[in-house]
Fold this sequence. Notes:
- This protein is 40% helix and 22% strand.
- By secondary structure, the chain is α+β, with helices and mostly antiparallel strands.
- The protein starts with 6 loop residues before the first helix and ends with a strand.
Amino acid sequence: MEHALSPATLTELRRPRPYPAVSVLTPTHRREPEKAQDPVRLRNVVAAAKKQLESDPAVSRDRRAEVERQLDQALAEVDLTHAEDGLVIFAAPGEHQVWSLARPVPERVVLADTFLTRNLVSAQAAERPFWVLSVSADRVTLWSGGTDRVTEVRTGGFPLTRSFDNFDAERQERIGDLPSTFRDEGTRHFLRDADTAVSAVLKDDARPLYITGEQAALSALDEIGTVTKDAVHIPHGGLAHGTHEAVWQAVRPIVAAQDRKSTDEVARELESARGRRAFAAGLDEVWQNAREARVRLLAVEENYRATVRDDGDHLIPAESGDLDAREDIVDEIVEQCLETGAEVRFVPDGTLRDAHGIAGVLRY
């Protein structure tokens, strides 16, 4: 199952497909007793997708059989043992994907000529993704981080490794000879290569960057690095050869502190915008401004949800299951704002109490 949504992946998902491109969404659960119902619910929503295919006169018999085959393959790949909060299946002629999301989604089946990506986009923004670069004299490892984990990334040339005669990095650490190791020109060249490689990664997928390593390694990067010089440094050695859990435990408190700092910055920006009358609060007001591309910064509480109907001029509160109800309007707003160049920040529940859970700083 997929977790990380890069800009390149999103572009690929959004390209037009031969009809029908099927999007199947269903909420999932991390814990019992709700978790026990997830397999049944998933089978039912996939069956509903097949029923829509069968009843759609625009879908030929051969194409229906092919898309149903892709749905069955996707269903077989789902691992609900490690379910998060939402699941999305994409299926089209010749392809399928399964996405696990750390954000709830409404149960839905959509047949179109593109996949429905707004829930993926919103979940990615809510997860506040970041990179971790773990450096040592003989290995540099890249990790992709999110809400509750990091996973090793094996693209962009990572992990970088070097081997040479008569070198034992762990022995150097034991005998305290790391400073001279990281003054060695060969090691510094290796670190420059790592700096160049992670620069390319950031160019394709910009995120906050954290770097772990011995203090001598971090000091060397201060001298020779570009993007690595400006990253958040965490003096913790041994993680270039470490496990994902060890890396997560090392970076988690630093990431949490950065998140608190970010929340404080958002609060100050919103207060300043209120004073300049460049402030929007509440679902309907933010939606109106988002459609006009006026939102520069969108702030959303992490668990804020709403179901509405659109009467053409305003959003009206609705119940789930109502005719024309839009159960993921918050995700729609997030995607709309990102597409118009806005910055999107998710903040802890209660931060935007006065703004009813969602607020924006306007461009004009």
